[in-house]
Amino acid sequence: MPQRVFPTKGNLIQSKKTLALAKVGFDLLDRKRNILIREMVSLIDRAARIQREINTGYERAYMALQKANVAHGLISGIAESIPQETGLNITSRSVMGVELPAVRLEAMPRKLSYGFVTTSSLVDEAYIEFDHVKTMTAELAEVENSVYRLAYAIKKTQKRANALKNIVIPQLTGTIKFINDSLEEKDREEFSRMKVIKAKK
Predict the structure, then answer these.
(1) pTM given for the model
(2) Phi-psi region for residue 97, left (φ > 0), alpha (ψ -120 to 50) or beta?
(3) Lower CB density within 10 Å: C or N end of the chain?
């Protein structure tokens, strides 16, 4: 439904300017949404690939752990000697105004913190496999979090674009038509009045 405004040429010009801006805004939001969707689709594909690699990695890691446990008994004491991870850095990058996390796990040289007398290469293998999975898990965390943020941004952008397309632009179009019709009616009345005045003279 058009907004009821006083039908003047000034209001007509202002309404046309606002309509032009609304159309530009809709086009920009539509482009932004398409770019975000493309980014999200590529990240979903990447997440699926990493998840498959992690599943395979965990299978290998737990198999290696099982072999080490069989050979040395439970190696939980040895596992406790491995230092905690401290090289995780989280920054962010912007895609069309959406802040996406960038998770980076610093590649530290693998230092064995347990003795060689009570262990074997089976323990080393389990340690290496779990270390590899840890790196992939950090990458997956980045990608999945980015997908959630992009999905939220796409939803918000879609709502704004819909509001412009279905509410603002039709209202402004109706307002412009109303003002045009009113001004044309006034012109016709003025023309008729002038004809009557001229005829009387």
Answers:
(1) 0.75
(2) left
(3) C
CA distance 120 to 123: 6
What is the average pLDDT value for the chain, to the nearest integer?
87
Nearest C-alpha neighbor of 157 from the set 98, 69, 91, 86: 98
In the predicted structure, residue 7 carries a pLDDT above the cut 80: yes
Q: Judge whether 78 and 119 are in contact, CB under 8 Å.
A: yes
Residue 177 in 3-state DSSP? helix
Q: Which of 125, 25, 114 is nearest to 66 (CA)?
A: 125
Identify the CATH assignment for 9-200 out of 3.30.2350.10, 3.20.20.70, 2.40.40.20, 1.10.287.3240.
Answer: 1.10.287.3240
CB 176 within 8 A of CB 16: yes
| 165 DSSP 8-state letter | I
The one-letter amino acid at 111: K
